[in-house]
Amino acid sequence: MTHFPPNPWGDRRRVRVGLLGGSFNPAHEGHAHVAETALRLLALDEVWLLVSPQNPLKPVAGMAPLAVRLASADRVAARHPFIRATAIETRLGTAYTADTLMALRRRFAKTRFVWLMGADNLAQMHRWARWPRIFRAVPVAILARGPYSQQALATKVARRFSRSRGTPDGARSLSEKQPPAWVFLHTRLHPASSTAIRARNNNP
User: How far is CA 124 from the centre of its chain?
Assistant: First the structure.
């Protein structure tokens, strides 16, 4: 199946879309596992892999060019008919997730977005620019990642929106809920790691 990235100018489809952002340096089986798990547990129509031009919290050194990272995400997406890879932030002109979500909501007015992230990201989300706006823009699904789970649920972010946390039983209807709304899903941990892949590639 041929995969096409989302139209940067938007569309009017009524679909439920999970957004999995990251550097994808490179994309790997773990990203595919998260996307496929989200499709199933959240009853999504699609998952978009949002390949960041440059994560403001990560160093430029060691970051592969955007085209290379997008190509690796394309290879992951090509294995599943409902996963799509895109560098749409370059067209939106946004550098921060909060701004990206607002731009996507304007351009894809009929789409029900859900922000997807691992528990490791929730643990340091308080460092993200305007992070409360993310929870107020779209529903959020946190996928547990091993030792980060308990740490993540004790963070400033989780405490701030504790009253908006739903149960895993309601995950399939998360995309229909009015934000702030989020769930924490205990899922199988996948061993793949971008850091480990880069180390292996650098030391053949």
Answer: 15
Map tokens 């409360």 to a residue. 132
Largest CA distance in the chain: 49
For residue 39, give its domain range: 16-188
Residue whose pair of structure tokens reads 């607002």 in the numeric block: 102
**Residue 197 covered by a domain:** no
Q: Measured on CA atoms in the order 14, 138, 140, 65, is the torsion positive or negative?
A: positive
Cα(178)–Cα(71) distance, integer angstroms: 34
Q: How many domains does the chain have?
A: 1
Per-residue pLDDT reduced to its tens digit, 109-168: 999 999 999 888 888 899 999 999 999 999 999 997 666 677 788 899 999 999 999 999
Question: Residue 139 maps to which CATH number?
Answer: 3.40.50.620
Q: Residue 161 domain-assigned?
A: yes
Mean per-residue pLDDT over the chain, rounded = 87
Q: Is residue 119 part of a domain?
A: yes
Coil, strand or helix at 4: coil
pLDDT score, position 74 = 94
pTM of this structure: 0.88
- Residue 83 to residues 15, 35, 61, 76, 123, Cα–Cα distance (Å): 13, 7, 29, 8, 26
